[in-house]
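cron nightly-structures :: item 1 of 1
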Amino acid sequence: MSASNHDLDPDSTTGVEDITDAKEELIKHCEEMWEDMEKLSLLIMQMKCLTAELSQWQKETPEILPLNEEFLVSLGKEEFQKLRHDLELVLSTIQSKNEKLKEDLEREQLWLDEQQQVLESLVVLHNELKDQIVTVSESRIFNELKTKLRDIKEYKEKLLLTLSEFLEDHFPLPDRNVKKKKKKNIQESTTQLITLHEILEILINRLFDVPHDPYVKISDSFWPPYVELLLRNGIALRHPEDPTRIRLEAFHQ
């Protein structure tokens, strides 16, 4: 590295300090974006494990059951065996995804290590410039950090798009015709249902905007099967004192 020792401004150290502050601020942004990506990746993996169960629910047709006690006991045993089988399938699916998850984690950890090496290199470069009291090009340092930040933002947007497409394909709104067929004797609600993607977006925004009170009131626009889906799989939690309120599980804590 060459050093220019002529025409030095005594206040050049002020510029170096400004670079340090800007660099630390961008590093902080990079770390925050990385945490968001980890949470979104975990959420996508959990959603994929639930697709089979939702598809089975949508194919079921309600039947009028007799009130015979012997029949009900037999039906209960059958449902218990079915539930046990379903849980075994879910467990098998989760176990089969563990290796893939480990590979993804190793790849993300490698990427993080590379970013850490970049940051360490920038710190060393800053210390060298400070010791030699030389002027440096601010644009080069800023461009490197801005490029890394832009890459992180693009990756986050890609994860959000993937989650949105996955939810739209596998968790659509219920077919109103099917709903009428299943509930002939119940007056149809006029409330406009929202998608599972919108429910998750509400829960995520509440968790990060109001972390001291992340619970959301279950409105009529929340389709009950989607609410139960989130609760049964540990993605959402009920309020310990008010069962009509739920919150998103804090996976980042």
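cron nightly-structures :: done
The first strand starts at residue 216 and ends at 217.
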